[in-house]
Amino acid sequence: MNNIPVVIVVLSCTILVAPYIAQLLKIPLSVTEILLGILIGFFGVFEHNTYIPLIAKTGFLFLMFLAGMEVDLKNFLRIESSLFKRAIGYFVMLYSLSALLVWFLNLSIVYLVAFPIVSLGMIMALIKEHGKNEPWIKLTLIIGIFGELISITALTLLSGVLEYGISLNLLRAIGILILFLIISVFMFRFTSIIFWWYPHLKNIIMPEYDNSEKDVRLSMAFFFIMIGLMIWLGLDMVLGAFIAGIFITTFFDHKIDLHHKLSSLGFGFLIPVFFIYVGSTVNIKALISTDVISLAVQIIAVMFSIRAISSMMYLTKLGLQNTLMLAMGDSMPLTFLLAIATIGKETHSISINEYYALVIAGMISSITMMSIIKIIFIFKKTKAIKNIENLIE
Q1: Residue 14: pLDDT over 80
Q2: What span, in angstroms and rounded, lies between the C-alpha atoms of 298 and 361?
Q3: What is the pLDDT of residue 153?
Q4: Mean pLDDT lowest for which of 166-175, 239-248, 352-361?
Q5: b/e for 272-311, b at 16 or more Cβ within 10 A?
Q6: What does the domain layout of the chain look like in residue ranges?
Q7: ∠356-345-10 over CA atoms, to 5°?
Q8: How far apart are CA 185 and CA 342, in angstroms?
Q9: In angstroms, rounded to a whole number, what is the distance separating the alpha carbons of residues 217 and 285?
């Protein structure tokens, strides 16, 4: 069906009703949007439409831009050295276990990145629901920030390997990536010095009180400029979007409402289109396919297991229950798992059933982990209330 008016109406109505359905079903909004997308795909609403994939790609890149805005380099660089060392150790263990499994089971290289992938998206949803008071949640956020940076790099490298193979073109792409990262470090340092010498420039560029939305205009301009630069350099656009987000939040932190404005734009339209479109690419039969569901469950089991083992370095600090909750909080990489599945499918590095399994694994893990964590919180709260009542009696 390539009827533009129908596509617009269906997409608009889906975006509108998704939050109410998510609230009714008590599942994450992004998962609801994917499920609705699967239903839309069943009726072939988006078939042969060239606009929706483009808007969906923009939505995903904007999601990565907002993820970058969660990383404030000033605070990030102030992390205690002990936490920094443990986080590095955690990821060394995580990727080592993934590499062993991929080698032992002779899996596609896609899984080398998929198993240990970390995304801030669901972690931020976790923090929004339960706050940052719990020590394990604070550690989950730190690991999420580290993981987001590592995952972006891993995604970029995976995209290069699958596109070029092991060749001179790949080495060239890696060289350009390293050079770009070095230039980015110098750019951040140079900008920091400029704003240190001339702090009033921040207010000139982004006035605190402004009725012409200069802050949004600059943010969007920088977002698209970085994407254009990535295309020109032949690098993954995700990296450019992520760095653009870091830059904006690091140097224009005086604009407290900017993140809210951009989040409203992203989560109000662009990002839902991405989730709905991904859902539309999943055959509804995959949801009842024993092979696909079995593979999805295996992927989730592996993802949680390697995180549970890697999290044991925090055992003495957190205790067993909180350590396992840390592993659960880190086992919901929905957005990046979708990105990896898309890359794998487009480069024919994984089968269509594996693509479906990765998408479904992302949905199931998000629902399952969030639900288990919520139940544990309710149990702990109930237990605390009973203890207080016993003390009163």
Answers
A1: yes
A2: 9
A3: 80
A4: 166-175
A5: bbbbbbbbbbbeeebeebeebbebbbebbebbbebbbebb
A6: 4-392
A7: 65
A8: 30
A9: 43
Written as six digits, the tokens of 107 are 């899996």
User: Given this model, what pLDDT does residue 306 score?
Assistant: 93
Q: What confidence category does residue 296 fall into, taking pLDDT thresholds of 50, 70 and 90?
A: very high
Percent of residues, the chain, with pLDDT higher than 90: 12
Q: And the tokens for 145?
A: 């920030």
Distance CA(371)–CA(25), nearest Å, equals 12
Contact 299/358 with Cβ under 8 angstroms? yes
Q: Give the Cα separation of 117 and 104 in Å (integer).
A: 19
Taking the C-alpha atoms of residue 238 and residue 60, their distance in angstroms, rounded to an integer, is 8
Domain 4-392, what fold? Na+/H+ antiporter like fold (1.20.1530)
Q: Which amino acid is at 154?
A: A
Question: pLDDT by residue (tens digit) across 151-176?
Answer: 878 877 777 777 777 777 777 777 88
**Runs of H (alpha helix) within the chain:** 4-25, 29-42, 51-68, 73-76, 81-105, 110-114, 120-130, 135-164, 168-197, 200-205, 214-233, 237-251, 258-265, 271-280, 290-310, 315-318, 320-329, 334-346, 352-392
